[in-house]
Design a protein that fits this description.
globular, 368 residues, mainly alpha, 2 domains
């Protein structure tokens, strides 16, 4: 009998070693948790760990809100109908109440906006602030339905400022108190998250207030002195005879006086407002925003000196041309200063745009 054969008697007791054809059901698989996307919050970008679906915090909120971060939800859903109703309520009640409570301050501010060239930009501050808030709505923290009672603290400061300003007759402090009223209303009705979101934009409202009288006079005196001496240096570089004497530049054929209106305070406020608007809208890193704000003052002083120097050059070299452009009852110096002002405005905008562009070019985000 061959070795590889098995007897028939033993063949029936040998177990079948062929693979079974009966299908085996796989073990049940637990549902995988929901992986959350990368969330950008107050602490930068971070990738959330997979978490189980959570229930909404409020019956009006959608179930797809962003999970909680270190200080609570990073962003809440936006209830458009509730937001519009709250906004209309504030516009109908709180805005008239603010105007009525600080009517003397509002009247004084509007008077200065209309009659003082250094603060004529005040008419555009409130519309510009509303526009900046609208342009940043994509980062809105979300709808909060509860009142934040801590927001009454800025309103308390508003009341203390008004009482002290009325007792000491400080009009500028009475005006600044309006800003604390606005901060308190936003904090109380919208919560601290919206307050922090809107605070940089609300700081733009400070440009609608006038400087205190003593600070205004002191700044104008120092700015006049600096503008006269810096413009004299530029005129000497351009080949003109220019000798600064206090706030006056003695040229070869005339004397060019630097008045209070030519001190550069209006230029300084305008350039600083443009820099703050750029910092709000460009959304650069915080240190770049600081550089953008820091360049405003040197740029304004430089351009104002250039404007006075151009005025002197037009009067020295092109006096006849300026005389031909002068209307009846106008001064030749006023016409030359107007043309120099237009050149200075374009120069300021161009230099500021060049600085912002260069700052963005040398510091780029590199993905690794």
């Amino acid at each position: 009998m061959p070795r590889h054969t098995v007897p028939a008697a033993l063949r029936s007791n040998t177990p079948d070693r062929t693979p079974s054809t009966v299908p085996v059901e796989p073990p049940p698989v637990a549902p995988s948790p929901i992986a959350q996307p990368v969330v950008t919050g107050r602490f930068g970008e971070r990738e959330l760990k997979p978490t189980q679906p959570t229930q909404p915090q409020h019956p009006k909120q959608s179930a797809s809100f962003v999970p909680a971060g270190p200080l609570g939800p990073v962003r809440l859903p936006i209830d458009a109908s509730f937001e519009w109703g709250r906004l209309l309520l504030l516009a109908a009640v709180m805005v008239p109440l603010c105007i009525w409570a600080s009517l003397p301050s509002w009247s004084s501010m509007v008077y200065e906006w209309y009659h003082t060239d250094d603060y004529s930009h005040g008419f555009f501050v409130i519309p510009a602030t509303i526009l900046f808030l609208y342009m940043r709505l994509d980062t809105y923290p979300g709808t909060r339905y509860k009142l934040d009672w801590v927001g009454l603290f800025p309103i308390f400061i508003y009341g203390m400022f008004r009482i002290f300003a009325g007792y000491r007759y400080i009009d500028s402090l009475d005006m600044v108190a309006i800003w604390f009223w606005i901060l308190g209303v936003v904090w109380f009705f919208y919560g601290w998250r919206v307050f922090l979101w809107a605070l940089p934009t609300l700081c733009f409202l400070v440009f609608m207030f006038q400087l205190p009288w003593r600070i205004d006079v002191l700044m104008k005196n120092h700015l006049q002195f600096f503008a006269a001496h810096f413009a004299a240096i530029l005129l000497q570089i351009a080949g003109e005879t220019a000798v600064p004497i206090k706030n006056t530049i003695r040229l070869s054929t005339m004397e060019l006086g630097v008045e209070a209106a030519c001190s550069g305070l209006r230029f300084l406020m305008s350039v600083f407002a443009i820099a703050m608007a750029a910092a709000l809208l460009l959304r650069r890193p915080w240190w770049q925003n600081i550089l953008i704000l820091a360049i405003a003052a040197p740029l304004a002083l430089f351009v104002n000196g250039v404007r006075i120097a151009i005025t002197g050059i037009l009067l020295e070299r092109h006096y006849e041309l300026m005389s031909g452009l002068t209307a009846a009852g106008q001064s030749v110096t006023v016409v030359a200063d107007a043309y120099a002002g237009k050149i200075a405005i374009g120069l300021a905008l161009g230099l500021f745009a060049l600085f912002v562009w260069y700052l963005g070019m040398i510091f780029r985000k590199v993905e690794i």
